[in-house]
Amino acid sequence: MKHFVFLLVIFIACSLSAPAQVLTGTVTNGTRNKPSAGDDVILLSLTKGMEEQGKTKTNAKGEFSFNMARTPNAMYLVRVHHQDVNYHEPVTPGTNNVKVTVYDSKITVPEIKLLDQSEIYQAKDNSAEVIELFRLSNTSNPPMTQPTFEFYLPEGASIQAGQAVANGTPIKSSPVPLLEKNKYYFPYPVRPGETHFEVVYTLPYKGSLKAEPKMGMVPGKFYVVTPKSIRFVPGSGSVFSSTTWPIDTSIKDIETHVADNPQAGTQLEFEISGTGLLPQDKSADQEPAAGGDNRPGGGLGTPNEKPGPLQSAQWLLLGILVVALAAGAFYVYSSNRPAAAFATGPAKPTDRNTALLEAMKEEIFDLEMDRLQGKLSPQEYEAAKSALDKTLQRAMQRQSRQK
User: Fold this and answer.
1) Full-model pTM
2) Which CATH number is 49's domain given?
């Protein structure tokens, strides 16, 4: 009997040392300005990757709850799936209630406008390398989300990398081909506000190249950017004029041509000839300023001569991204890549922390997918995972202190 009582006391003590807590939350439909009922809600633990801890649905009041055993500094994530779009909210240590805003989605949101589209070229040997940038604005009222963004690439394009830029932070997003030839989409939602997309690709090159851009959406401005050593000749009937590139004024020694406010059917053909590389950005090797880099992501840069940067060294690029984000700089460079990115105003500290958390969550998801698909060795996975865990924990603690 004494042994039984002793074991019972031990059991109760162990139970009390890790008390179950209730995490509650509310999901609001920002389109209808009312509770969002019937949405799938998943609780994910970020301590060891993204492990599902529980799954439920919101009730008629948009409410949900989870019973969970909380440990000190444990990191969790609430994912709400609403009309084929995922929305995330971090659960910082000590938090027992979260609020998530979702939006109704439509395949096409008419209020989404393509503010501008830029094609940045450089050419060397038998290859032309292109960075294509899209800046979109979603001013829908009531606010709605478009699940994807579709666009065209030229014949023969070989995609090297892709990313979305939301809230000033780059998130890896590789374009996916559609059934229509040379048409692709980014599997990343265009939520209310601004969303930017970047894709890097190569084209066969024999000293000159004729381009006939095909538009999925007509941009407000269409830019063509080249090194000064590359000659640009507009096609017959094209409406290009010389200008400066306003997207990133820090890049010098380039030629920029713009088609201003082109209409559907506007001729945008042009030809480039010669070789040349974009100028190196000296700041890539310097310490970031105290305020961080105001350019979201610092762009993808230009593909270098190393094969398959996202395929052959995903963990290394991920580590570089983590270090840059942890230092407060939101850009990804490699030592021999020139920079090309969007210029935006400085973000508030809270906005930067939220953007950092969002980027980390996306990267953890991608990392786990790469591990499950056998793309990473155990050593590569552990190195990237360790760096992500430390950075994510610091960001969540910082956000918790600011609330």
Assistant:
1) 0.67
2) 2.60.40.10
